[in-house]
Design a protein that fits this description.
68 residues; mainly alpha; 2 helices; elongated
Length: 68
């Protein structure tokens, strides 16, 4: 069984931007808005977690460099 593709932070941000653009498009539908909003919110939370993890990695690397 193949492993699902892992998206980069940039790809996730691009996906989120597409989802947000939907709300301003002619395709906007009030009946679908709640589900689209929930999906976008979940993706935004995932991006936030990814960025926090990246920040922690950078802080660890910076700490290691400051020891030298």
């Amino acid at each position: 069984m193949s492993k699902p593709e892992t998206k980069t932070i940039n790809q996730k941000i691009a996906d989120l931007n597409q989802q947000v653009e939907w709300f301003y498009s002619d395709d906007f539908n009030l009946d679908k808005a709640t589900n689209k909003y929930k999906t976008a919110l979940a993706l935004a939370s995932e991006i936030k977690r990814d960025l926090e993890g990246l920040k922690n990695q950078i802080e660890i690397i910076a700490k290691d460099f400051s020891k030298e």
